[in-house]
Design goal:
Length: 656
C-alpha cells in the first residue's frame, strides 16, 4: 500500500471508538416469565393461557451460538417455542420432539448470524387447544456472541443491477409476497414502495401486514396489520392514485375474514399512501377482494377508481366470478363484468393497463387460469362500461394461461397501451411457461418469451423506457426455475435488455412479484423492484446494459505489523480510481449504485494497469483499538458504467 493510503487508513482507525457490547450487557426486552443471566436466557409459562417472550436488537454484528433445553411436564406437546431473527427462523419445536411424559429435549450447537440492529426474538407459548396446567420452560444456555472480525465483504458493486435491498422487518417466509412501486408519497425526492406480507411480526397467524417503505431510508413510513388472524392483509394490494387529494398516491387492499364472528365477511379498503389512514372500507361475503387493482379515473370525476375481484360470484352461473369496477370517491359500483364459463372464477387476476383503445378512459385486464373448467384465458375490458375489447386463449388447456396479466406500456410506439399475459405451462409439456405481449390497439401478439428464460408462473410490470429508444419495456419475474431471475424485454421486438439472476442471500422465489415505473434513487431514471418472498425486496437500477463492476478483495489478519493487501480487479484498463474510506456505513444511493462508506477520507490518484487491476500492499499499523471498524470502497469514472461511473463492492474491516 502506498504511503498516503497507509497513513490515511491508520489515521482513520485510531479515531474509531471501542463500542462492542458483551453478552451480559445486551439490552434484552424481557416479558413476563423471562429471566436472563450472564450466559443464559430462561422462559417459563406456568398456566394454560400464558406466553413468555424475550427480544433483543443486536448491538453488534456477529454470530450468536447457544444450546437449547425445552422441558414440559405433560404430553402430548401443549407448548411450543419459536426462535427467530429478522433473517428468518432459527429454531422451532417439531411434532414428535416430546413423545413421553415428562418431556425434555436438548439441542446443542445452534448458531445464527446477526447484523447490527437485527432483532432476535425468543417466544414460548401455550397450544391454544391444550388444557394443561403443568409448567413448561425453555432454556438457552451457553449463550455466546462472537463479533465479526477481519475483512468482510459488504455491499455489491455498481453493475447496473442491484441498487439496494430491503430486508424483512418480519421474520417470516412470506415477507414480500407482493411488492408495488409507489410514487413519492413523503415528497423527499425518492419514490417509495409498498410491501405486502402474510404474517405480521412475532406471530404465526395470517392477519397479514403492509409496510410502506421509504425509497430514501429503506425504513417503513407506516405499517398496517390486518384486523383478524385470517384477514390476509398484504396478499392483494395495488396503488390506486391520489384519492384524497393530498398529492400522494394511495393504496387499495383486499382482505379476507374481516369480522371476528363466523360470518366470513371479506373486505376492501382504500388507505392513504402518505400515512396509512383509512379512506374507505367495504365489506361483502367471502371472496370479495381476492384481487384488487387501481384503474385510473373511469367516471370522469378526476378521482382514480379501482377494480375488485369476486371470484366466487354465482350470478352468471356456478363460480363464474365477477369483477366490480368501483368509484374511488364513494366506493359505489360503477359497473360489473361477469365471467362466461362455469367454474371460471373470474376476478382472481386483475391489472389496470391504461387506455388500450384510445377512447380517453383507462381499461382493465382480467386473467382466468382455472384450466380444470376450460377458462384458461385473458381479457381486456373497457373502462367505459365493461365491453370486452380483446380476449385471448392459451395454447393448451393445461397452460394456465391468464395466471398473470399486467400493463406493458406502449411497447410498439403506436400511442396505445399494450398488455402482458403469462402462462405457467407450455405446448412442449415442459412447463417452462411463456409470456406474451399483445397490442392494445388490435390484439395481435407483438412478441413472446418462454424457453430462454423459464418464465413459469411469472410476474410482470411496465417499467417505462429503460434503454432510451423511446419505447416502453417490460420487467418479467421468473421464480419457478432455479435460480430465480428477473429480466427486462425491450419493445418493439422483445429483445433482452438485461437478465438478473437471484442475488444472495435468497429464498428461492426471486421474481415471484415485480413492479416498477418510479425513480427510487432520485437519479431521474425509473428503477425496478423484484420481490424475493421470505427474504428481501431487491431494488434494481433502471439503467440498461450489463456492466461488470470492479471487485475489491482484502487479505490479512488486521493484527499489528502483519501484512495487509487490497486487490482491485475488473476495473477500467489504465483508469484512475479513488478509495472511499469511512468509519461508518452511509449506504447512500449514488450514480445508479450504492455509496457504502461515509466519505471520511478519499485516497485518489490510484492508477490501474492494462487489465484494470491494482494491488495495494503494506502492513497493518500498531495502536489501532480492538473492535475498530472501517469501510472501504472503490469508485471511478467509467464511460461504460451506469451514469458514467463504476464502483466496487465494499469491504468492512473489523479489528480483533
Amino acid at each position: 500500500m502506498n504511503g498516503l493510503a497507509r497513513f490515511t487508513v491508520a489515521a482513520v482507525l485510531v479515531l474509531a471508538p471501542d463500542s462492542r457490547a458483551q453478552m451480559p450487557q445486551w439490552p434484552w426486552n424481557l416479558g413476563a416469565g423471562a429471566t436472563v443471566g450472564s450466559d443464559w436466557l430462561k422462559l417459563e409459562i406456568p398456566n394454560p393461557t400464558s406466553t413468555a417472550e424475550a427480544k433483543v436488537f443486536a448491538p453488534d454484528q456477529g454470530t450468536l451460538s447457544f444450546d437449547l433445553v425445552f422441558t414440559m411436564a405433560d404430553a402430548p406437546p401443549s407448548a411450543h417455542y419459536i426462535i427467530e431473527s429478522d433473517s428468518g427462523l432459527v429454531a422451532v419445536d417439531h411434532p414428535g420432539d416430546c413423545p413421553t411424559t415428562p418431556c425434555k429435549t436438548t439441542i446443542t450447537g445452534i448458531t445464527t448470524h446477526l447484523e447490527q440492529g437485527e432483532a432476535f426474538d425468543v417466544l414460548l407459548l401455550t397450544d391454544p387447544f391444550s388444557y394443561r396446567s403443568a409448567t413448561s420452560t425453555l432454556l438457552l444456555r451457553n449463550l455466546t456472541f462472537t463479533p465479526d472480525v477481519g475483512i468482510l465483504e459488504a455491499g455489491e458493486g455498481l453493475a447496473g443491477g442491484v441498487l439496494a435491498k430491503v430486508s424483512s422487518p418480519t421474520p417470516k417466509k412470506t415477507f414480500a409476497e407482493h411488492v408495488v412501486a409507489m410514487d413519492d408519497v413523503d415528497h423527499d425526492g425518492h419514490a417509495d414502495l409498498l410491501v405486502g406480507s402474510v404474517h405480521p411480526i412475532g406471530s404465526l397467524n395470517y392477519a397479514g401486514r403492509l409496510d410502506l417503505i421509504s425509497g430514501k431510508t429503506l425504513l417503513p413510513l407506516w405499517t398496517y396489520i390486518g384486523p383478524t388472524t385470517d384477514s390476509l392483509a398484504g396478499t392483494w394490494i395495488d396503488r390506486v392514485g391520489d384519492v384524497d387529494g393530498d398529492g400522494s398516491g394511495d393504496v387499495v387492499i383486499g382482505l379476507q375474514d374481516v369480522s371476528p364472528d363466523p360470518t366470513f365477511l371479506s373486505g376492501v379498503q382504500l388507505r392513504s399512501g402518505a400515512n396509512g389512514t383509512l379512506l374507505l372500507s367495504l365489506t361483502a361475503p367471502y371472496g370479495f377482494g381476492q384481487s384488487v387493482a387501481g384503474t385510473g379515473d373511469l367516471d370522469g370525476d378526476s378521482i382514480p377508481d379501482f377494480a375488485v375481484g369476486v371470484p366466487f360470484d354465482d350470478q352468471g352461473g356456478p363460480d363464474v366470478g365477477a369483477v366490480q369496477l368501483r368509484s374511488g370517491s364513494t366506493g359505489t359500483i360503477l359497473f360489473v363484468v361477469t365471467g362466461s364459463v362455469p367454474g371460471e372464477q373470474m376476478g382472481r387476476v386483475l391489472a389496470g393497463v391504461g387506455d388500450v383503445n384510445a377512447d380517453g378512459v383507462p381499461d382493465l385486464a382480467i386473467g382466468s387460469d382455472q384450466t380444470t373448467y376450460g377458462s384458461n384465458r385473458a381479457r381486456v375490458v373497457s373502462g367505459a362500461g365493461g365491453a370486452v375489447l380483446h380476449e385471448w386463449l392459451g395454447d393448451l388447456p393445461e397452460d394456465d394461461f391468464g395466471r398473470m396479466v399486467a400493463a406493458a406500456g406502449d411497447v410498439n410506439g403506436d400511442g396505445q397501451s399494450d398488455v402482458v399475459v403469462g402462462a405457467a405451462g407450455d405446448a412442449d409439456g415442459e412447463n417452462y411457461g411463456y409470456v406474451r405481449v399483445f397490442s392494445g390497439a388490435h390484439g395481435s401478439v407483438l412478441f413472446e418469451d418462454g424457453d430462454d428464460h423459464d418464465v413459469s408462473a411469472a410476474s410482470a410490470a411496465a417499467v417505462g423506457d429503460i434503454d432510451g429508444d423511446g419505447l416502453a419495456d417490460v420487467l418479467i419475474g421468473a421464480p419457478a426455475f432455479a435460480p430465480g431471475r428477473a429480466f427486462v424485454l425491450g419493445g418493439p421486438d422483445g429483445h433482452t435488455i438485461f437478465d438478473e439472476t437471484e442475488p444472495q442471500p435468497a429464498s428461492g422465489d426471486y421474481g415471484a412479484t415485480v413492479s416498477g415505473g418510479f425513480d427510487v434513487d432520485g437519479d431521474s431514471v425509473q428503477d425496478l423492484l423484484v420481490g424475493d418472498p421470505g427474504s428481501q425486496v431487491v431494488i434494481l437500477t433502471g439503467v440498461a446494459g450489463e456492466h461488470i463492476p470492479p471487485h475489491l478483495v482484502g487479505s490479512g489478519t488486521l493484527a499489528p505489523g502483519t501484512p495487509l493487501a487490497l486487490s482491485i480487479e475488473d476495473g477500467l484498463p489504465f483508469g484512475a480510481a479513488t478509495l472511499v474510506i469511512g468509519l461508518t456505513a452511509l449506504e447512500l444511493p449514488f450514480k445508479g449504485g450504492m455509496l457504502v462508506p461515509f466519505p471520511d477520507v478519499l485516497v485518489g490518484a490510484l492508477l490501474l494497469d492494462a487489465q484494470g487491476s491494482l494491488v495495494l500492499s503494506g502492513t497493518w499499523p500498531a495502536g489501532v483499538p480492538s473492535d475498530s471498524e472501517i469501510w472501504i470502497q472503490l469508485w471511478a469514472l467509467d464511460p461504460k458504467g451506469p451514469h458514467g461511473w463504476t464502483a466496487s463492492n465494499a469491504l468492512q474491516l473489523i479489528t480483533p
